[in-house]
Specification:
Length: 801
């Protein structure tokens, strides 16, 4: 029976090769896109779900409130996790911390003196292999991180450093530490996680450090707990205020609180300060899922539209079948079978398209070929394809099987106009979706252009950043700077404790109107005298730092305009000379700079302070000399060679690497850029598939109107009048679709743009552009079909009459 259905289907497809190809190709493209987005969404939703007992795992977040600023941090003081485990052993099954001294890049030296700069290197607790989905390939999980100066490395690093050689027992040096670490294990992260690691040092190495033991304010440790089965998050959170009161520093505990975030929610729902890496957003999952479903709907609409239209041409076939004894149920089964077979033909083609496209899409979607041909994925898609074929074929099957043989043989089938209303509704639905995606894509690309090109209030495009933590350049910086400045391409050199607009710390301040000993927390950078001029910032009141006032500036602060307003000085001049006590002593404001963006453009500008580094020749000064920023007027090979030469003269324990500040800022919008690329692809595919359907439908209508156009041409109708006859119906449908798309797109666009503190003004242009494109594309599609009919000889068209 199945073989008979396949034969009939193939014969039917062969009779209408063009329409059949359009139908199958549109569905195949849609299925291919659906496969990729399904895999992408599956990956996004699976973040951190692979950890043992992930439903009981939580990250501890910290809120520090002060009068004018609130820090909502993804991390905690290093002591928090350790003392929580000590205080609540009946509530916590496991606790693990990830701590990097706020150095995202560290230098590793091997025994052969080779140097490597590595990301994702953390100090962590030995419980990491009980709590996380980290598989220990070599070593004993009970002992690999049980003592100080032990480290485990990823399988990737083991191969990179030693190839097939066994790394266990080898020594490595982490630059900045006097004692070597011993490799005690090799591990692999099995499941996808927002926690990316390459090397894990034992936390027992740094736990004894006095400044960490005493610290309850500095909070760079990401802390996770697995609660015991009988403990709910609410029960545990209720105990945290008492914990803060018992242990935390008196200067901060009044405004400090903690709460739990389910680990499975971090990747898509957490956008706090100091995240381990920029997270994605659940909104993008919804957007991509909607796009994938839209594509399938459009393809199914094409199928239904074309099936019902061209079924009219199969009227005699149905009449003969009915006259020879075929029942309605038999006809329904036959046409449902045809629909399902066509869907599977399209699916096999979709697999071929997906296989050919995987290498191009893998960098964006992070999906490998193994996931594409996963058994579970194949099984799920088989079921989905069967359902698509069935649903697409239901209406055509019932529609075709209802033909009256008597009417068919009288030649009146086409005049019935059966299915006309449905075809109109489906075309409207198709182009509504297409127009919505065009509008969303237009807005997305313009918003991304704003994000990638907006002036942050400083000259990011001219700044090269060198990571100098652990190089001890803080002690020899002046000589290093002088050597760099000897090249005319180097306009200025400065230092900063964190990369401006990428990261910062929040520091304690006591200002006018506050009681001594009370503190407010504000974002700040530790910089030097050249920072403001190097970054091209504008002083609007007071003065810049200067080496001429080194003694005075050692106890001085520069604030931004918003900070001056926050402190109560609407006129920036009034802030000059005001008290600004920090942990360094009694300081005062000497300058106010114009506002600049010190975070990504998702956040508005807030108060900010620039504190000059001091004690340059001491370890404290060296600690805050973490990044050197070089203002360049070009970055040609000669300039880069000069910079590398100076580096090697002054630094022998860290390889020369650099990054441009504007490129670092663009990385803050990686998820948005990915979404823009995917959305643009979807918009193009949607328009193509919709036009394929419209092309086929127009071809059918052209055949219906051949005689009408011939008669009108004989009567003197012009080319444009004849084109209007063919396009009139589609034009009305596109206008209705455009009217439907406007409120839908406005709702989604506004919801997405609300995530940005800086956003484009939508205006009318996206809607006008989308409407114009829809009309232009649809008119060209219809014209391509009607042109041959319009220019043909009327005598050939009317010779049967």
């Amino acid at each position: 029976m199945l073989s008979d259905y396949i034969k009939v289907t193939l014969r039917s497809l062969a009779k209408n090769k063009l329409i059949s190809s359009i139908n199958i190709l549109g569905l195949a493209i849609s299925l291919s896109a659906f496969i990729f987005i399904t895999l992408y969404i599956k990956k996004e939703l699976s973040y951190d779900a692979g950890h043992p007992n992930s439903d009981r795992m939580y990250r501890i977040a910290e809120i520090i409130k002060s009068d004018n600023f609130t820090e909502n941090s993804s991390s905690c003081p290093p002591n928090t996790g350790k003392f929580l485990l000590k205080e609540f052993p009946d509530d916590i099954e496991y606790m693990v911390r990830f701590f990097d001294f706020q150095n995202p890049i560290v230098t590793i030296q091997l025994e052969n003196q080779e140097l490597y700069n590595e990301k994702y290197v953390y100090f962590t607790d030995s419980s990491v292999f009980d709590m996380m989905d980290f598989e220990l390939l070599q070593g004993n999980k009970e002992t690999v991180l049980s003592g100080p100066w032990m480290t485990v490395i990823s399988e990737e690093l083991a191969k990179k450093y030693w190839g097939d050689e066994n790394p266990i027992g080898k020594k490595i040096t982490r630059v900045g530490f006097q004692t070597d670490f011993e490799i005690t294990g090799v591990y692999r992260q099995n499941s996808v996680s927002h926690i990316k690691t390459k090397m894990l040092h034992s936390f027992a190495t740094v736990d004894p450090f006095p400044f960490l033991q005493r610290n309850w304010v500095w909070n760079p440790a990401w802390t996770y707990v697995t609660l015991k089965e009988n403990v709910t998050p609410a029960m545990f959170e209720a105990k945290l205020p008492g914990f803060v009161e018992k242990y935390y520093d008196p200067r901060s505990k009044e405004g400090t609180s903690h709460y739990l975030i389910p680990i499975e929610d971090v990747h898509l729902k957490s956008h706090l300060e100091f995240e381990m890496a920029p997270n994605s957003d659940i909104k993008y999952v919804y957007i991509f899922a909607s796009c994938a479903v839209f594509l399938l709907i459009i393809a199914m609409v094409n199928f239904v539209n074309l099936s019902t239209s061209y079924s009219l041409l199969r009227g005699k076939e149905i009449g003969v079948r009915k006259v020879t004894g075929a029942t309605k149920s038999q006809l329904i089964i036959q046409f449902l079978a045809e629909s399902i077979i066509i869907a599977f033909i399209a699916y096999f083609i979709a697999l071929g398209i997906s296989f050919a496209s995987i290498s191009y899409l893998e960098p964006t979607l992070e999906i490998g070929i193994g996931e594409l041909f996963n058994v579970q994925m194949i099984a799920a898609m088989t079921g989905i394809v069967f359902l698509i074929g069935f649903l697409s074929g239901v209406y055509p099957a019932f529609f075709i099987s209802s033909f009256d043989p008597l009417v068919v043989f009288k030649g009146k089938m086409i005049s019935q106009g059966s299915g006309k209303v449905l075809r109109k509704v489906l075309v409207i639905a198709q182009f509504t979706i297409a127009i919505v995606l065009i509008i969303f894509t237009y807005v997305t690309y313009n918003q991304l252009a704003l994000l990638n090109n907006k002036n942050y209030g400083f000259d990011a495009d001219k700044i090269m950043v060198l990571d100098v933590a652990n190089t001890r350049l803080g002690q020899t910086y002046d000589a290093f700077r002088t050597q760099l400045m000897s090249n005319s391409a180097v306009e200025n050199v400065t230092v900063m404790s964190d990369i401006l607009a990428v990261n910062n710390n929040n520091h304690e301040f006591n200002h006018e109107g506050m009681t001594a000993g009370e503190w407010n927390y504000y974002p700040a950078l530790i910089v030097d005298e050249e920072f403001v001029s190097s970054l091209g910032m504008k002083i609007i009141a007071g003065r810049d730092y200067s080496v001429q006032y080194a003694r005075e500036d050692s106890l001085s602060i520069i604030v931004n305009k918003t900070m001056a307003k926050t402190l109560g000085y609407s006129n920036p001049e009034d802030a000059i000379g005001q008290r600004m006590v920090t942990r360094n002593g009694n300081e005062k404001i000497v300058g106010v700079v114009e506002d600049f963006n010190y975070k990504s453009l998702h956040s508005p500008i807030g108060p900010f302070a620039l504190d000059v580094r001091r004690n340059r020749q001491r370890n404290n000064g060296n600690f805050f000399t973490r990044h050197v920023a070089i203002r360049l007027n070009n970055t040609d090979q000669a300039t880069l060679a000069h910079l590398e030469e100076v580096w090697k003269k002054n630094v022998n324990n860290v390889p020369f690497t650099y990054k441009m500040l504007d490129s670092e800022l663009k990385k803050l919008y990686q998820e948005e850029n990915n979404m823009g690329s995917i959305l643009g692809t979807f918009a193009v595919l949607t328009v193509i598939i919709a036009c394929l359907g419209l092309f086929a439908l127009a071809s059918f209508i052209a055949q219906q109107k051949m005689k009408e156009i011939g008669i009108r041409k004989v009567l003197g109708a012009t080319f444009f009048k004849l084109f209007y006859v063919g396009y009139k119906e589609q034009f009305i449908l596109i206008v209705v679709a455009f009217a439907s798309a406007i409120p839908i797109s406005y709702y989604f666009v506004e919801g997405w743009l609300d995530d940005f503190a800086y956003r484009i003004n939508i205006g009318y242009m996206p809607y006008i552009t989308a409407g114009f494109l829809a009309l232009l594309i649809s008119s060209l599609t219809v014209l391509s079909n009607f042109y041959k009919v319009i220019v043909s000889n009327p005598s050939e068209v009317l010779r049967d009459e």
